Amino acid sequence: MSVSQIVLLILGSLLLINWTRKFWLLKSMTHYSAAEVKDKLKGENILLLDVRTDMERRSQSIKGSLHIPSGQLRSRIGELEKYKNKEIICYCRSGNRSLNSVSLLKKHGFKSANMKGGIVTWNFSNKK
Predict the structure, then answer these.
(1) pLDDT bucket at 23, cuts 50 / 70 / 90
(2) Model pTM greater than 0.85?
(3) Which residues are catalytic?
(4) Do the strands 87-91 and 111-115 form a parallel or antiparallel pair, or are they unpaired?
(5) b or e along 16-31 (b: 16 or more beta carbons within 10 Å of the residue's beta carbon)?
């Protein structure tokens, strides 16, 4: 076997491992549509957590949401301790960064979920 074949085999294996890990991580999370989040906001004990950047947040946010950018969440997790009794629903622009935030929150013992499609879907559902 040549060096290039070994490198390709290793890269392929790493990609497969990463894909498998992401697949199981996604399956273990709760995902809500924007419509389901809107229904939950009517009375359930939840907190919306915006994990987008400061610049993204300035352009638009969901009223009543808390803002901690995903890149700062690990160092600021203590700020969420007072919300341990709530389900924390994370959102970003399209729903990708929020997945990592949900995973981190779960590792720290929070009940957390992801809003599928992020604020893009939220905005689309408001136009209906």
Answers:
(1) low
(2) no
(3) 92
(4) parallel
(5) eeeeeeeeeeeeebeb
